[in-house]
């Protein structure tokens, strides 16, 4: 069979976020294939969490495998993100599709810098932004964005996007539902992601 003209499928490392369930801390080395992007943006904040083990009151069962990723936004205008360097780049001007599953927990109790002595519930619905970048530019490009995740059951999300530059690094970022009058405490849970599939040249 000839492979000439075959469209690309880019497989992600650890697409179901399998790792050690832990609260976020400075050394984000417990989720193989993924790195903490927030360390570049907000170096004084903690890293993302791997669930479930009842940390922060999160008890939702995984959609796939044994663990999943939790990302938060905070009331001090900081947020969490992870990234992965792709095995092959996304090409400028090419159309891709990507799917993953998301939900939220009824409880996500954590102290904040504004309330360090009392846990607050990071319950406000939050969005996912999928960003891309490469080693040649400092800027990131928003590839796709979800609606606010306001449901406690896992739901499938499908994104279609066309990079405006070659992308070698994929970033998953929790972000506020816009327009937001002020920063708030919220979160998203993510599981069973990818692969990235080229659907048009």
Describe this structure in words.
- The chain is mostly beta strands.
- It has one domain (9-200): Jelly Rolls (Sandwich).
- It is built from 1 helix and 15 strands, in the order ββαβββββββββββββ.
Please name the defining characteristics of this protein.
single chain, 201 residues, mainly beta, Jelly Rolls, 8-stranded mixed beta sheet, 5-stranded antiparallel beta sheet, 1 helix, 2% helix
At the fourth CATH level, what is the homologous superfamily? Galactose-binding domain-like
CATH class: Mainly Beta
Mean pLDDT equals 91
**Radius of gyration, rounded?**
17 Å
Number of strands: 15
The CATH architecture comes to Sandwich
Number of domains: 1
Identify low-pLDDT runs.
Answer: none
Helix content: under 10%
Give the strand content. Answer: 35-45%
Question: Could you say which overall geometry the principal axes of the C-alpha atoms support?
Answer: globular
């Amino acid at each position: 069979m000839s492979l000439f003209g075959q469209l690309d499928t880019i497989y992600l490392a650890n697409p179901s976020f399998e790792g050690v369930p832990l609260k976020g801390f400075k050394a984000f080395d417990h989720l193989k294939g993924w790195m903490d992007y927030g360390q570049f943006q907000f170096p004084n904040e903690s890293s993302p969490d791997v669930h479930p083990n009842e940390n922060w009151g999160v008890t939702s069962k995984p959609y796939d495998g044994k663990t999943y990723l939790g990302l938060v936004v905070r009331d001090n205008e900081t947020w969490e993100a992870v990234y992965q360097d792709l095995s092959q780049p996304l090409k400028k001007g090419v159309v891709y599709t990507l799917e993953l599953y998301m939900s939220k927990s009824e409880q996500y109790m954590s102290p904040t810098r504004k309330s360090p002595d009392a846990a607050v519930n990071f319950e406000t619905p939050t969005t996912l932004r999928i960003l891309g970048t490469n080693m040649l530019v400092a800027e990131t490009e928003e590839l796709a964005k979800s609606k606010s995740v306001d449901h406690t059951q896992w739901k499938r999300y499908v994104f279609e996007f066309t990079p405006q530059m070659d992308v070698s690094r994929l970033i998953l970022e929790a972000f506020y539902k816009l327009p937001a009058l002020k920063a708030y405490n919220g979160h998203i849970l993510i599981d069973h992601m990818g692969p990235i599939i080229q659907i048009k040249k």
